[in-house]
Amino acid sequence: MIYSIQILRAFAAWAVAMLHFVQIYGSSGNYFQPIPKAFNGFGAGGVDLFFVISGFVMFVTTREKPYSPFEFISNRIARIAPAYYFVTVVAIFVVYIDKNFFLSRWMGTPLLDFQFILKSLLFIPTPNPPSGLYMPFFTLGWTLNYEMFFYILFTISLFFKKNHQFFVTSLLMISIYLLCSNYASGSLTYYGKNIIFEFLLGIFIGSLYINNKYKLPFSIGICIFLGSFLFVILRGSKVANDLFSDGIPAALMVFSSLSLSENLKKFKYLNFFSHLGDISYSTYLLHPFIFCLIYKIFLLFNNTRMNFLIAFIVSIILLYFTSLLSYYIIEKNSSIFLKHVFNSLKIKITISFQPLIDNYKKRLTK
Length: 366
What we know:
The chain is mainly α. It has helices at 3-25, 35-43, 45-64, 69-97, 103-107, 114-121, 142-157, 162-182, 197-210, 218-234, 243-264, 271-278, 280-298, 305-365. The chain is built from 14 helices and no strands. The radius of gyration is 22 Å and the shape is globular.
């Protein structure tokens, strides 16, 4: 993985986490203004950064190493699904014990409905029974619904020649967007938002990177990166997840970071942030559990500056170590296991259909 991209992954995950920390603690966070305001400004933009990075990584990965459509989608499912399923099951257990564990004023009160939970696990956008919003049982999974949508479109593009993949993905995405934003109803309207084009921005940046057209002078690269970053922080605290106000600045950050990557490697202390990028998916999934747990403990004590600071430090440390454990115990092991299962399935399917394939080839040669 490219060094600067790893650091950005860490940055995106912790930006979202800090936004949610501020939202959970509400007025208690006013002790350290304007820091909470800055988190409000950029925290939601961490999702847009994730989407751009996802498009970039998928394009570059499939160019550097050829993947069949089956290999690509099975690898993506093996990477994303197990940890998400794990936290969803934990969330079900937690909500069963304490319906307000995730704070109704923040994440709502998920309903223990079998059909709703099943659709959540299948990445199907479904109205959350209490709120009516298109949020899965474990609310943060809304981003994974978009991720899976992108993976499916990109899988389709892999049936075409490499030079046509960007065009095919773009055509599919634009067509779906126009249909869902103008004619669809119900769950399909979920894909009628311009946030889906942030994946295309990532693919475009990936094509520039593959063709070696990404290099900028260091001074220009750092100016574009810092300018985009400051724009997102200073633009206000509205959570938009919009292509123009969030997606384009995120894309500029990703693009400019590529020119900074080699220079960043000189600073050895940044290796820790690259390490945080490795465990960023677990950080994203686990932070609601950690922050809500510590918040409930925080409420048992007086609301003072010191207690708030202690809660903040304990939350950060605990989140780091649980993310580390989750990455090595759940993410890596489950991913390896599922990839083995999918590979075995692929072999069995190939063996089953080989006679048909051989007969078809014989007919072509006649």
